[in-house]
Write a structure and sequence with these properties.
The structure is a single chain. The protein has helices at about 15-20, 45-50, 65-80, 90-100, 115-130, 140-150, 170-180, 195, 210-215, 230-245, 250-280, 300-305, 325-330, 360-365, 385-395, and strands spanning about 1-5, 25, 85-90, 110, 135, 155-160, 185-190, 205-210, 225-230, 285-290, 315-320, 335-340, 350, 375-380. With about 400 residues, it is an alpha/beta fold. It folds into 2 domains: about 10-260, Type I PLP-dependent aspartate aminotransferase-like (Major domain) (Aspartate Aminotransferase, domain 2), CATH 3.40.640.10; about 265-395, Aspartate Aminotransferase, domain 1 (Alpha-Beta Complex), CATH 3.90.1150. The longest helix is centred in the C-terminal third of the chain and has 33 residues, at about 250-280. The N and C termini lie far apart (about 60 Å).
Amino acid sequence: MTTDTKTQKKLRPATTLVHGGGTRSQYGETSEAMFLTQGFVYSSAEAAEARFNGEDPGFVYSRYANPTTAMFEDRIKALEGAEAARATASGMAAVNLALMASVRAGDHVVAAKALFGSCRYICEILLPRFGVESTLVDGTDIEQWKAAVKPNTKALFLESPTNPTLEIIDIAAVAEIAKSVGARLIVDNVFATPMYQSPLELGADVVVYSATKHIDGQGRCLGGVVLSDQEWITDEVMPFVKHTGPHMSPFNAWVLLKGLETLPLRVAQQTSSASKIADFLAEQSKVSRLIYPGRDDHPQAEVAKRQMRGGSTMVAFEIGDGKDAAFRFLNALEIIKLSNNLGDAKTLITHPATTTHQSMTEEARAELDISGGMLRLSVGLEDPLDLLEDIEQALTVI
Protein backbone atom coordinates (compact mmCIF):
# COMPACT_ATOMS: atom_id res chain seq x y z
CA MET A 1 0.00 0.00 0.00
CA THR A 2 1.13 3.56 -0.70
CA THR A 3 0.45 6.77 1.21
CA ASP A 4 -0.79 9.87 -0.58
CA THR A 5 2.12 12.22 0.18
CA LYS A 6 0.15 15.24 -1.01
CA THR A 7 -1.94 15.08 2.18
CA GLN A 8 0.90 14.91 4.69
CA LYS A 9 1.03 18.65 5.56
CA LYS A 10 -0.95 20.01 8.50
CA LEU A 11 -4.59 20.13 7.46
CA ARG A 12 -7.67 21.65 9.04
CA PRO A 13 -10.04 19.20 10.79
CA ALA A 14 -12.66 18.86 8.04
CA THR A 15 -9.99 18.13 5.44
CA THR A 16 -8.17 15.73 7.74
CA LEU A 17 -11.38 13.74 8.19
CA VAL A 18 -11.66 13.23 4.43
CA HIS A 19 -8.01 12.64 3.55
CA GLY A 20 -6.11 11.81 6.76
CA GLY A 21 -4.48 8.40 6.97
CA GLY A 22 -5.21 7.76 3.33
CA THR A 23 -3.40 4.78 1.82
CA ARG A 24 -4.12 3.05 -1.46
CA SER A 25 -3.48 -0.37 -2.90
CA GLN A 26 -1.93 -0.90 -6.31
CA TYR A 27 -5.37 -0.28 -7.84
CA GLY A 28 -5.52 3.37 -6.83
CA GLU A 29 -9.04 3.23 -5.40
CA THR A 30 -10.88 6.45 -4.46
CA SER A 31 -12.59 5.07 -1.36
CA GLU A 32 -10.51 3.27 1.23
CA ALA A 33 -10.14 -0.44 0.58
CA MET A 34 -11.67 -2.95 2.96
CA PHE A 35 -9.24 -5.75 3.78
CA LEU A 36 -11.45 -8.55 5.09
CA THR A 37 -8.66 -10.95 5.92
CA GLN A 38 -7.66 -12.80 9.05
CA GLY A 39 -4.01 -13.27 8.20
CA PHE A 40 -1.25 -12.39 5.75
CA VAL A 41 1.18 -14.43 3.68
CA TYR A 42 4.94 -14.00 3.36
CA SER A 43 7.25 -14.34 0.37
CA SER A 44 9.68 -16.55 2.32
CA ALA A 45 10.44 -18.03 5.70
CA GLU A 46 12.99 -15.26 6.20
CA ALA A 47 10.32 -12.63 5.45
CA ALA A 48 7.98 -14.20 8.01
CA GLU A 49 10.75 -14.18 10.62
CA ALA A 50 11.48 -10.51 9.90
CA ARG A 51 7.82 -9.62 10.20
CA PHE A 52 7.46 -11.36 13.56
CA ASN A 53 10.65 -9.98 15.11
CA GLY A 54 9.76 -6.43 14.08
CA GLU A 55 12.42 -5.89 11.42
CA ASP A 56 9.67 -5.65 8.79
CA PRO A 57 6.80 -3.37 9.95
CA GLY A 58 4.15 -5.13 7.87
CA PHE A 59 0.99 -6.88 9.06
CA VAL A 60 0.95 -10.26 10.81
CA TYR A 61 -2.60 -11.03 11.91
CA SER A 62 -5.80 -8.96 11.99
CA ARG A 63 -6.16 -9.51 15.72
CA TYR A 64 -3.07 -7.32 16.06
CA ALA A 65 -3.48 -4.88 13.17
CA ASN A 66 -5.06 -4.64 9.73
CA PRO A 67 -4.60 -2.21 6.80
CA THR A 68 -8.17 -0.88 6.99
CA THR A 69 -8.10 -0.53 10.76
CA ALA A 70 -4.72 1.20 10.50
CA MET A 71 -6.23 3.80 8.19
CA PHE A 72 -8.94 4.54 10.75
CA GLU A 73 -6.31 4.84 13.50
CA ASP A 74 -4.14 7.14 11.40
CA ARG A 75 -7.05 9.40 10.52
CA ILE A 76 -8.37 9.84 14.05
CA LYS A 77 -4.91 10.36 15.54
CA ALA A 78 -4.29 13.10 12.95
CA LEU A 79 -7.52 14.80 14.02
CA GLU A 80 -6.82 14.37 17.74
CA GLY A 81 -3.17 15.41 17.52
CA ALA A 82 -2.02 12.13 19.08
CA GLU A 83 1.17 10.24 18.33
CA ALA A 84 -0.55 6.85 18.21
CA ALA A 85 -3.94 5.15 18.38
CA ARG A 86 -5.38 1.66 18.74
CA ALA A 87 -8.88 0.84 17.56
CA THR A 88 -11.08 -1.48 19.62
CA ALA A 89 -14.27 -3.47 19.16
CA SER A 90 -16.38 -1.07 21.27
CA GLY A 91 -16.18 2.03 23.42
CA MET A 92 -16.15 -0.03 26.60
CA ALA A 93 -13.29 -2.12 25.19
CA ALA A 94 -11.40 1.17 24.77
CA VAL A 95 -12.09 2.26 28.36
CA ASN A 96 -11.11 -1.15 29.74
CA LEU A 97 -7.95 -1.20 27.61
CA ALA A 98 -6.90 2.30 28.69
CA LEU A 99 -7.34 1.54 32.38
CA MET A 100 -5.92 -1.99 32.38
CA ALA A 101 -2.86 -0.89 30.42
CA SER A 102 -2.22 1.83 33.02
CA VAL A 103 -2.22 -0.19 36.25
CA ARG A 104 -0.80 -3.20 38.05
CA ALA A 105 -1.82 -4.95 41.27
CA GLY A 106 -1.16 -2.60 44.16
CA ASP A 107 -1.88 0.55 42.14
CA HIS A 108 -4.62 3.09 42.76
CA VAL A 109 -7.10 4.81 40.40
CA VAL A 110 -9.05 8.01 41.04
CA ALA A 111 -12.18 8.52 38.93
CA ALA A 112 -15.05 10.96 38.77
CA LYS A 113 -18.29 9.62 40.24
CA ALA A 114 -20.30 10.77 37.24
CA LEU A 115 -19.55 7.94 34.84
CA PHE A 116 -21.48 5.69 32.49
CA GLY A 117 -22.68 2.61 34.40
CA SER A 118 -20.21 0.20 32.78
CA CYS A 119 -17.32 2.57 33.46
CA ARG A 120 -18.31 2.66 37.12
CA TYR A 121 -18.36 -1.16 37.08
CA ILE A 122 -14.75 -1.29 35.87
CA CYS A 123 -13.60 1.19 38.51
CA GLU A 124 -15.65 -0.05 41.46
CA ILE A 125 -15.81 -3.82 40.85
CA LEU A 126 -13.45 -5.06 38.15
CA LEU A 127 -10.22 -3.27 39.07
CA PRO A 128 -10.40 -4.23 42.78
CA ARG A 129 -10.69 -7.91 41.76
CA PHE A 130 -7.15 -7.60 40.39
CA GLY A 131 -5.73 -5.72 43.35
CA VAL A 132 -6.21 -2.19 42.06
CA GLU A 133 -7.82 0.17 44.56
CA SER A 134 -10.18 2.88 43.28
CA THR A 135 -11.57 6.10 44.72
CA LEU A 136 -14.53 8.01 43.28
CA VAL A 137 -14.74 11.80 43.65
CA ASP A 138 -16.97 14.68 42.65
CA GLY A 139 -15.28 15.47 39.37
CA THR A 140 -16.19 19.16 39.46
CA ASP A 141 -14.47 19.63 42.85
CA ILE A 142 -10.73 19.97 42.20
CA GLU A 143 -9.97 19.76 45.91
CA GLN A 144 -11.48 16.27 46.03
CA TRP A 145 -9.12 15.15 43.23
CA LYS A 146 -6.15 16.56 45.17
CA ALA A 147 -7.22 14.84 48.39
CA ALA A 148 -7.81 11.47 46.70
CA VAL A 149 -4.45 10.94 44.99
CA LYS A 150 -1.86 8.76 46.71
CA PRO A 151 1.77 7.83 46.06
CA ASN A 152 0.53 4.67 44.27
CA THR A 153 -2.07 6.49 42.11
CA LYS A 154 -1.31 5.55 38.51
CA ALA A 155 -4.43 6.71 36.65
CA LEU A 156 -7.09 9.39 36.86
CA PHE A 157 -10.23 8.88 34.79
CA LEU A 158 -13.10 11.15 33.84
CA GLU A 159 -15.81 11.92 31.30
CA SER A 160 -16.51 15.52 30.31
CA PRO A 161 -19.30 16.32 29.66
CA THR A 162 -20.51 13.53 31.91
CA ASN A 163 -23.18 10.95 31.19
CA PRO A 164 -26.04 11.77 31.70
CA THR A 165 -25.95 15.00 33.76
CA LEU A 166 -23.56 16.86 31.41
CA GLU A 167 -21.24 18.11 34.13
CA ILE A 168 -18.10 19.80 32.82
CA ILE A 169 -14.85 18.83 34.54
CA ASP A 170 -11.79 21.10 34.36
CA ILE A 171 -9.48 18.82 32.38
CA ALA A 172 -6.42 21.08 32.63
CA ALA A 173 -6.72 21.29 36.42
CA VAL A 174 -7.07 17.53 36.81
CA ALA A 175 -4.14 17.01 34.41
CA GLU A 176 -1.91 19.07 36.71
CA ILE A 177 -2.86 16.85 39.63
CA ALA A 178 -2.12 13.70 37.62
CA LYS A 179 1.30 14.99 36.61
CA SER A 180 2.12 15.91 40.22
CA VAL A 181 1.99 12.23 41.20
CA GLY A 182 3.24 10.72 37.92
CA ALA A 183 -0.17 9.31 36.95
CA ARG A 184 -1.86 9.19 33.56
CA LEU A 185 -5.05 11.19 33.00
CA ILE A 186 -7.55 9.27 30.85
CA VAL A 187 -10.41 11.33 29.38
CA ASP A 188 -13.53 9.87 27.79
CA ASN A 189 -14.31 12.55 25.19
CA VAL A 190 -17.44 11.01 23.67
CA PHE A 191 -20.01 13.66 24.55
CA ALA A 192 -17.79 16.57 23.46
CA THR A 193 -16.62 14.78 20.30
CA PRO A 194 -13.18 15.57 18.83
CA MET A 195 -14.78 18.53 17.06
CA TYR A 196 -15.45 20.45 20.29
CA GLN A 197 -12.79 19.38 22.77
CA SER A 198 -9.13 18.35 22.58
CA PRO A 199 -8.11 16.73 25.89
CA LEU A 200 -4.49 16.14 24.86
CA GLU A 201 -4.04 19.87 24.31
CA LEU A 202 -5.47 20.43 27.80
CA GLY A 203 -2.89 18.13 29.39
CA ALA A 204 -4.56 14.72 29.29
CA ASP A 205 -2.36 11.70 28.55
CA VAL A 206 -4.97 9.37 27.04
CA VAL A 207 -8.20 10.01 25.14
CA VAL A 208 -10.83 7.33 24.57
CA TYR A 209 -13.89 7.30 22.34
CA SER A 210 -16.84 5.09 21.77
CA ALA A 211 -16.74 5.38 17.98
CA THR A 212 -20.18 3.76 18.06
CA LYS A 213 -21.54 7.22 18.85
CA HIS A 214 -20.90 10.35 16.75
CA ILE A 215 -18.01 8.89 14.75
CA ASP A 216 -20.25 6.27 13.17
CA GLY A 217 -23.25 8.45 13.85
CA GLN A 218 -25.74 6.37 11.92
CA GLY A 219 -26.46 3.38 14.12
CA ARG A 220 -24.51 0.86 12.06
CA CYS A 221 -21.68 -0.67 14.06
CA LEU A 222 -19.68 -0.70 17.27
CA GLY A 223 -16.18 0.63 17.75
CA GLY A 224 -13.78 2.39 20.09
CA VAL A 225 -10.33 3.94 20.05
CA VAL A 226 -7.54 4.75 22.52
CA LEU A 227 -5.16 7.62 21.67
CA SER A 228 -1.94 8.59 23.44
CA ASP A 229 1.83 8.87 23.02
CA GLN A 230 3.71 6.35 20.90
CA GLU A 231 5.79 4.88 23.72
CA TRP A 232 2.81 3.98 25.94
CA ILE A 233 0.76 2.63 23.02
CA THR A 234 3.71 0.47 21.89
CA ASP A 235 4.87 -0.76 25.30
CA GLU A 236 1.59 -1.15 27.19
CA VAL A 237 -1.41 -1.05 24.85
CA MET A 238 -0.09 -3.14 21.95
CA PRO A 239 0.75 -6.23 24.05
CA PHE A 240 -2.68 -6.02 25.69
CA VAL A 241 -4.38 -5.88 22.27
CA LYS A 242 -2.22 -8.66 20.86
CA HIS A 243 -2.84 -11.11 23.66
CA THR A 244 -6.43 -10.36 24.72
CA GLY A 245 -8.10 -9.64 21.37
CA PRO A 246 -10.15 -6.41 21.64
CA HIS A 247 -9.05 -5.13 18.22
CA MET A 248 -11.63 -3.57 15.88
CA SER A 249 -12.82 -5.58 12.87
CA PRO A 250 -11.79 -4.37 9.38
CA PHE A 251 -15.41 -4.03 8.31
CA ASN A 252 -16.26 -1.78 11.24
CA ALA A 253 -13.10 0.27 10.63
CA TRP A 254 -14.20 0.87 7.04
CA VAL A 255 -17.68 1.99 8.15
CA LEU A 256 -16.13 4.33 10.73
CA LEU A 257 -13.78 5.81 8.13
CA LYS A 258 -16.86 6.78 6.15
CA GLY A 259 -18.40 8.22 9.31
CA LEU A 260 -15.36 10.42 9.97
CA GLU A 261 -15.76 12.07 6.58
CA THR A 262 -19.06 13.68 7.58
CA LEU A 263 -18.44 14.12 11.31
CA PRO A 264 -17.97 17.93 11.26
CA LEU A 265 -21.15 18.52 9.27
CA ARG A 266 -23.26 16.21 11.40
CA VAL A 267 -22.02 17.46 14.76
CA ALA A 268 -22.47 21.11 13.74
CA GLN A 269 -26.08 20.55 12.68
CA GLN A 270 -26.89 18.42 15.72
CA THR A 271 -25.42 21.04 18.05
CA SER A 272 -27.36 23.85 16.39
CA SER A 273 -30.60 21.92 16.86
CA ALA A 274 -29.69 20.92 20.43
CA SER A 275 -29.17 24.58 21.33
CA LYS A 276 -32.62 25.49 20.01
CA ILE A 277 -34.24 22.62 21.90
CA ALA A 278 -32.42 23.51 25.11
CA ASP A 279 -33.62 27.11 24.89
CA PHE A 280 -37.18 25.90 24.34
CA LEU A 281 -37.11 23.44 27.24
CA ALA A 282 -35.69 26.08 29.58
CA GLU A 283 -38.93 28.06 29.19
CA GLN A 284 -41.32 25.16 29.84
CA SER A 285 -43.08 25.09 33.21
CA LYS A 286 -43.24 21.28 33.21
CA VAL A 287 -39.45 21.06 32.95
CA SER A 288 -37.95 21.55 36.40
CA ARG A 289 -34.29 21.46 35.33
CA LEU A 290 -32.47 21.98 32.05
CA ILE A 291 -28.75 21.18 31.56
CA TYR A 292 -26.95 22.20 28.39
CA PRO A 293 -23.22 23.04 28.18
CA GLY A 294 -23.82 25.77 25.60
CA ARG A 295 -25.97 27.91 27.91
CA ASP A 296 -24.79 30.52 30.40
CA ASP A 297 -26.94 28.94 33.13
CA HIS A 298 -24.97 25.68 33.03
CA PRO A 299 -23.35 25.06 36.46
CA GLN A 300 -19.87 24.92 34.91
CA ALA A 301 -20.46 27.41 32.08
CA GLU A 302 -17.11 29.14 32.62
CA VAL A 303 -15.17 25.88 32.33
CA ALA A 304 -17.19 24.86 29.28
CA LYS A 305 -16.36 28.11 27.50
CA ARG A 306 -12.69 27.71 28.35
CA GLN A 307 -12.15 24.13 27.17
CA MET A 308 -14.91 23.43 24.64
CA ARG A 309 -15.37 24.91 21.16
CA GLY A 310 -19.13 24.33 21.08
CA GLY A 311 -22.07 23.25 23.19
CA SER A 312 -23.05 19.64 22.67
CA THR A 313 -25.38 17.41 20.73
CA MET A 314 -26.73 16.28 24.11
CA VAL A 315 -29.40 17.86 26.32
CA ALA A 316 -30.42 16.69 29.81
CA PHE A 317 -33.65 17.78 31.43
CA GLU A 318 -35.90 16.80 34.28
CA ILE A 319 -39.66 16.38 34.34
CA GLY A 320 -40.69 17.70 37.74
CA ASP A 321 -43.20 15.00 38.67
CA GLY A 322 -40.74 12.09 38.45
CA LYS A 323 -40.66 8.73 36.73
CA ASP A 324 -44.37 8.38 35.92
CA ALA A 325 -44.50 11.78 34.22
CA ALA A 326 -41.22 11.06 32.40
CA PHE A 327 -42.62 7.77 31.09
CA ARG A 328 -45.82 9.49 29.89
CA PHE A 329 -43.69 12.02 28.05
CA LEU A 330 -41.51 9.33 26.46
CA ASN A 331 -44.48 7.26 25.36
CA ALA A 332 -46.11 10.29 23.73
CA LEU A 333 -43.17 11.10 21.47
CA GLU A 334 -43.73 10.36 17.80
CA ILE A 335 -40.56 11.36 15.93
CA ILE A 336 -37.98 11.09 18.69
CA LYS A 337 -37.05 7.46 19.32
CA LEU A 338 -36.57 5.81 22.70
CA SER A 339 -33.08 4.26 22.74
CA ASN A 340 -30.06 4.06 25.04
CA ASN A 341 -27.68 4.92 22.18
CA LEU A 342 -26.57 8.46 21.34
CA GLY A 343 -24.73 10.52 18.74
CA ASP A 344 -26.98 9.15 15.98
CA ALA A 345 -28.50 10.79 12.90
CA LYS A 346 -31.85 10.03 14.53
CA THR A 347 -32.82 11.94 17.66
CA LEU A 348 -32.80 9.51 20.59
CA ILE A 349 -33.97 9.83 24.16
CA THR A 350 -33.50 7.65 27.21
CA HIS A 351 -34.48 7.45 30.86
CA PRO A 352 -31.07 6.93 32.55
CA ALA A 353 -32.40 5.76 35.93
CA THR A 354 -34.02 2.69 34.35
CA THR A 355 -31.57 2.06 31.47
CA THR A 356 -27.95 3.22 31.25
CA HIS A 357 -27.59 3.76 35.02
CA GLN A 358 -30.10 1.24 36.35
CA SER A 359 -27.35 -1.03 37.72
CA MET A 360 -26.34 1.65 40.22
CA THR A 361 -27.89 1.73 43.65
CA GLU A 362 -30.65 4.23 44.28
CA GLU A 363 -28.29 6.06 46.63
CA ALA A 364 -25.58 6.31 43.97
CA ARG A 365 -28.04 7.70 41.44
CA ALA A 366 -29.30 10.24 43.97
CA GLU A 367 -25.73 11.32 44.65
CA LEU A 368 -25.33 12.05 40.92
CA ASP A 369 -28.72 13.80 40.66
CA ILE A 370 -30.06 11.12 38.33
CA SER A 371 -33.69 11.37 39.37
CA GLY A 372 -36.73 9.47 38.18
CA GLY A 373 -37.69 12.50 36.14
CA MET A 374 -34.38 12.96 34.34
CA LEU A 375 -34.16 12.37 30.58
CA ARG A 376 -31.14 12.41 28.26
CA LEU A 377 -31.75 13.66 24.73
CA SER A 378 -29.30 13.02 21.89
CA VAL A 379 -30.24 15.38 19.07
CA GLY A 380 -30.06 14.10 15.50
CA LEU A 381 -30.30 15.49 12.00
CA GLU A 382 -34.04 15.99 11.64
CA ASP A 383 -35.49 19.46 11.05
CA PRO A 384 -35.35 21.15 14.46
CA LEU A 385 -38.88 22.50 14.04
CA ASP A 386 -40.24 18.96 13.75
CA LEU A 387 -38.35 17.98 16.89
CA LEU A 388 -39.64 21.00 18.80
CA GLU A 389 -43.21 20.24 17.76
CA ASP A 390 -42.80 16.62 18.86
CA ILE A 391 -41.48 17.68 22.28
CA GLU A 392 -44.20 20.28 22.68
CA GLN A 393 -47.03 17.85 22.00
CA ALA A 394 -45.50 15.23 24.32
CA LEU A 395 -45.31 17.77 27.16
CA THR A 396 -49.09 18.18 27.00
CA VAL A 397 -49.67 14.67 28.41
CA ILE A 398 -47.86 15.29 31.70
